Amino acid sequence: MEKIVIEGGNRLNGTIQVGGAKNSAVALIPAAILADSPVTIEQLPDISDVRNLCELLKEIGGKVTFENNTMVIDPREMIPMPLPNGRVKKLRASYYLMGAMLGRFKKAVVGLPGGCNLGPRPIDQHIKGFEALGAKVTNEQGAIYLQADELRGARIYLDVVSVGATINIMLAAVLAKGRTIIENAAKEPEIIDVATLLSGMGAKIKGAGTDVIRIDGVESLHGCRHCIIPDRIEAGTYMILAAACGERVLIDNVIPPHVESLTAKLREMGVKVHTYDDQIEIVRDGTPLKKADIKTLVYPGFPTDLQPPLTVLLTQAHGASLVTETIFDHRFKYVDELRRMGAEIKVEGRSAIVEGPTRLQAAKVNATDLRAGAALVVAGAVANGITEITGVEHIDRGYSGLVDKLRGIGMKIWREKTETEEETTAVGR
Ligand code: EPU
User: pTM of the predicted model, to two decimals?
Assistant: First the structure.
């Protein structure tokens, strides 16, 4: 096991590169199951979720290569092999195998997903969608069994706006007979990216990116070449890091409208944010940071995935900021770790009050999930002294080459082997 070590207090300067979007990648890769010839996906991030999905596609008979961030998936010899256990448990997004395998084979067995523990993460809306399309769905010993004689288009109203359910229903519906309409659909850029790939494969999809998506089923889908969108959460994490301890940092490979809610918040706090075609520059000139209130919402609102790192930035702002989390119940777990670094944060239910500015002190801390890890990296960069972060495997699920990228803008950060059992198992803290 490894830990990330950061010597805090250095000013950051230079250019940092953003990779392909994790939450797109994890849907694009299973989508390839639906094709009848090879699919090439470019600019994929080299992260553990992507590597796990690559192995899962091989387990069901796919021929897959992944080199230089490009994955070529030949789905021709895939079979509807049951995947009740093992690798599927390692990532949340293994649920996309349900929609894609159901779409292609009309049956699937997929273990209930793992991934970040952010409280209850039901998939009732995914299942409601599959059932509306004609599938029989049962839950047996921690695995979901799906079976349909044929899939028929249907009108599906999502009771909760869900990224996962919207994409999963799209995957199951593209080869169904007739028209599917998803109402109250999620509008995240990742949904448009998946729709773009599926359209490239021959699917007929209209309205992706709005709250009504119309899909006209087709007989078959073919392979194509697709380039993934940049990761808006990775970009946002670097924007926050640059606001916390940068002088002049250029974030390269970003679609500025995708991070508009963060850009507006940073400007409100007094950070200079310059946007260009596919770059964003963050400039800090010594102006003190002002407090800000944030509330996480579905896109285009403020993303829940940026709430933890932004909360760290708020510890450096003058005044009391109010952070309200509306998407995931357990997204304040990292606050205990920040308190150990001296942060003054009070959590009450779904809200946190952050007092600032506080001088953070280095500590040994543990990342309990991916974005908690991102928050602790920002905290370590700001803090006085040497911070050690365990739970690095969570960070590796979503940030490729993080240490090298951050060293490139002047951060003192490195990886070390954990020495004691206690360090590796600090997870329970
Ligand atoms: N929900 C239901 N029923 C469902 C599905 C969702 O009640 O059937 C609820 C969830 O419990 C949650 C809300 O609806 O309260 C939104 O969940 P959504 O389905 O949109 O989230 P997700 O698909 O599980 C994706 C990302 C998350 C990101 C959220 C919100 C992937 C693999 N994961 O999760 O990413 O936080 O959307 O934008 O795309 C991360 O990257 O760190 C991460 C956790």
Answer: 0.96
